[in-house]
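In the previous chapter we treated chains in isolation. Here, by contrast, the input contains two separate entities that must be folded as one system, with a combined length of 935 residues.
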Amino acid sequence: MTLSSGDSKIIEPLLFEKSVPDRQGFTWPELDVPASAPLPSNLRRRQAPDWPELAELQVVRHFTRLSQLNYSLDTHFYPLGSCTMKYNPKANERAASWPEFAELHPLRPDHLSQGILEILFNLEKWLGDICGMDAVTLQPSAGAQGELTGILVARAYHESRGQNRHVVLIPDSAHGTNPASVAVAGLTAVTVKSTADGCLDIDDLKSKLSSDVAVLMMTVPNTLGLFEPKILEIARLVHDSGALFYMDGANLNALVGLVKPGDLGFDIIHVNVHKTFSTPHGGGGPGAGPVGVKKFLADFLPIPRISLKDGLYSLSEESPKTIGRVRSFQGNTGILIRAYCYLRLQGAQGLASISENAILAANYVRVTLAPLFPKMPVTPCMHEVVVSGDGAYGPGVKTLDVAKRLLDYGFYAPTIYFPLIVPEALMIEPTETETRETLDLFCETIRTILDESRRDPSLLKNAPTTTPVRRLDEVKAAREPNLRHTRGETSPR
Amino acid sequence: MFIPYTAKQRDEILKTVGVRSFEELIGDLPQDKLRPSYHLPPSITEMELLRHMDDLSKRAFLAQSFLGAGAYEHFIPTAVWSLALRGEFATAYTPYQPEASQGTLQSIYEFQTLICELFSMDVSNASLYDGASAAAEACLLAARHTGRTEILIPETVHPHTRQVISTYLAHSGAKIVLIPFQQPTLSGEILKKHLNSDTAALLLQTPNFFGCLEDPAPLSKIVHEAGALLISSTYPAALGLISPPGEYDADIAVAEGQSLGVPLSYGGPYLGLFACKKELMRKMPGRVVGQTVDLDGKRGFVLTLQAREQHIRREKAMSNICTNQALCALASTIHMALLGKKGLARLADINFQKAHYAADQLQKNGVPLTFTSPFFNEFAVRFPRSPDPLIDSLGRDRILAGFPLGKYYPSLKNDLLVCVTEIKTKQDIDDFVTRVTEWARP
């Protein structure tokens, strides 16, 4: 891979640095209608945007080179815990790109949109089946918007019963989006402690449940990769107090085909189709965050709702109890089509093979790494294993250094320093689509790196050295924010 | 299919793990709830899947479309998605390890620069979900920044945007003050009647939902004199021609970014554009990429200003958003790079001319425009009766006639919103005018 730009301080010049005045990368056809009167001058743009001027091949090479600077699932093992970086089937991409789907205007009349509505209707039904929920909305654009939707539904439900419950309980191991979504919904997040083994502290939960509590939000399996053994008891406690039980479905990959969250007592769930249902992560979106609820909450779901009547699918905005609209139009349909394809390929009988093999792979990594980490959990995990690096490295070496050294060996790094309750955490999620050979190589590499950490820690402290750039100055980035290129700005010296 | 474990490997792994059967690994799950039955259809192969999807796709036809109303049919150069869908981009995740994610990070930095230039604003984030949620985040920011509670929103703002803002603001302490639709655009006089010391911001959409162009400069002055912010919601494809938010001193600029290289896809995924003045930078929602250097002084890019975000601040974060719409932002970056500054101006001009030609032809043939305000590529026409039968009739011939305004505006029950982009040829427009005028004739 040659990426030389002639300037050793630059890997790939910016688009703007390649621009030459009057060059064109795209030509619009000549105007075939007579010109009309011009726009009044007070409404006209005074200065054109300073966009680059490039030929098409320059643009193609630029972005091809940029793509080569990325580690990705298609090129590297990507054991990023909590993100479920499983293979994204190419057939799904193919179908979603067909013009008969990609060029559909969202405000087409319903009777001219039956195929796509059938896809969305069935996807709602299947996700409901997998989650054990009675009604599903596909609207939310991502997991965090799904959380907000779910919490707003819970709030609307309590308010419809004349109850002013303003507290949402969240375990200390939860993702940051949970409390942030609760705040946007105007409720107060209160933390519930975890026990030393990472499960919910039932006594702490009991002491915090009251008539003020609207919801207990739990990630299952939790962010330590463990299934909560007292889940049924927790559900009972929550319901007895009049609160609702919400499942953050970030880790649903461990449960599909094995158990339905609705059967565990959950009333609301959001799922991330870009995790469990194989849609690509896109470098950070777009995803989709469908929300499923039990029947008594269905009327509160956002609009529009899809229905089937007399063989005709239609969208409706008439829903008196709805929390409203959470985004424009119907949702991230292009992404949802991919999830639909995935579920068609898996079918009912293929569901359990997802979670079984994901669990198997994570446990294989757990036992293979066990001799290397003094604090390795000894009990089985679910789809991911959280390892504490405490005591496993040579002097002065941190988990961050291990993560960076993994990049040198051609592996993306696991999620690190999360959950917050595990010191020097490494959160490894292999998923069901990686071969045992890859897992063996990964574990062997970790062993090598830990040896290096004792023999020559500088190898880790200086890592990575084989990536396009070495460690970056994040403090400088935050203290002297440079968030856009300015013409004439010279490259760093 | 996607699972590489052979039966032999599974047995070996179980042995290595030290269990006799898989079930021992899931002993914590309630045993009476295990392995329920599912009602999904049976598994099919890739060949069967593509046949099935082909059948479904044929239940929708490709249409000659004059439908806009917030989502627009624009040409997308082939190179855009051929590059964006490369596995190295599409199957990477949020660039948590910047050394192994410079491709995504640099493209976002370029995106932010292009968007700042497009809007003529100081700073841009890495994108939000869509135009409507970007507008909602802007309203929350305005309330937070000014410490005031009222967001003025003309009824001419896209109904979906208003609905989404209403959902997001419901429990924020801030509220929407609707400026009822009396005229096609907002006048300074009407604005002044609604402004007071509680006003946090005016959200002005131009072109507005009726396609009419607002005159933002005088409104901006009035808003600022009242100590409130101006949030401008606009249409990127129009900005090669019409004044961008920075030229009339908007504090926050938002837009639905779909018109920059993202297909319609029945509603999404799109991307929300969000830019603001420098003084609001640390209150901005969403991911941001910044330039920095590595240990050797080499230029590189990282996610930055993360102290605003949910994974650090949890309930005190500026927003609950986690990701951006990175792949759509990448596609729009490639799209903008191909168009270049002259291409954007040409695109806007072609849209403007074609839509005005269509409007002129309709008027000449006895179909009046509802409003006389200047417009970009979308305008309303008025009929003596509801346009629903026209929509049905043209729909049967694979023509999408437009959006019936009566759906959201009862007083406009006989009005149709018509959009004409660069996709339409003169012949397409002439045929459409013929069909519409034939139907409209008494």
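Chain B touches chain A through 205 residues (CB under 8 Å). The radius of gyration of chain B is 25 Å. Compare these points with the single-chain example from earlier in the chapter.
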